[in-house]
Amino acid sequence: MATENGQHGIGVDMLANDSREFRDGVVEMVSQIQTYGADIVGIACNTAHIYIDDIKLQPNTQFINLIQEVADKTKKYGAVKFGVLSSSGTRKQKLYHKYLDLAAADYQEASSAQQKLLDQTIDLVMAHKEIQAAEPLNQVMRQMFESGISHFILGCTELPIAYSAIDSYARTEYNVIDANWILAKSLVDKYYQKQI
């Protein structure tokens, strides 16, 4: 998270990339919720998908892969180019690449300079400063929009929160896929499918 002096502190990316505890925590959480009876599981943290191969599922448990669900959603937009906005960890691990390639999506990541602004956005949301977080996110989206990117994947839990604080007029210019909303809808859809 961002510290008082503006330095980048220990966030999810640091934990995900440098700590076995984060991996063990993700695996243990999924194990626990299955013990309590969950048979549909999703993880809202994009970066935590680094560890999906380590997750042990019971035979009757269905795992909703957030990143795959988002990539599948891109197929509905036709021939457009997506800007993939994510955390540094998700970007470094190229978590979206495989799934977007399989979906035949045309996409572009943020530049290194833009990634710093995205990380600033994420830190500000984690510090509960959503209004301030909107500015660096909007700056990145504006730059990419002006370079020809028409659609955006908000591939980090905090980015949709910052996006909702962007001025409503600016938001009308952007087309977004909100990973949080996609996961929520997928979980609900799978639940109701099981009820039939």
How would you characterize the overall build of this protein?
It is a single chain. By secondary structure, the protein is α/β, with parallel strands linked by helices. The protein folds into 2 domains: 12-65 and 184-195, no CATH class; 67-178, Rossmann fold (3-Layer(aba) Sandwich), CATH 3.40.50. It contains 10 helices and 6 strands. It has helices at 12-18, 20-35, 66-74, 88-93, 97-102, 112-126, 130-146, 159-163, 168-171, 179-195, and strands spanning 40-42, 62-64, 81-86, 106-109, 151-155, 175-178. A 4-stranded parallel β-sheet has the order 4-3-5-6, with helices on both faces. A two-stranded parallel sheet has the order 1-2.
Report the portion of residues in β strands.
Answer: 5-15%
CATH class of the largest domain: Alpha Beta
**Run of helices and strands:** HHEEHEHHEHHEHHEH
Low-pLDDT stretches: 1-10
Head-to-tail CA distance between termini: 43 Å
How are the strands of the largest sheet arranged? Answer: 4-3-5-6
**Largest sheet data:** 4 strands, parallel
How many distinct domains?
A: 2
Provide key terms for this protein.
196 residues; alpha/beta; Rossmann fold; 2 domains; 4-stranded parallel β-sheet; 10 helices; 13% strand; globular
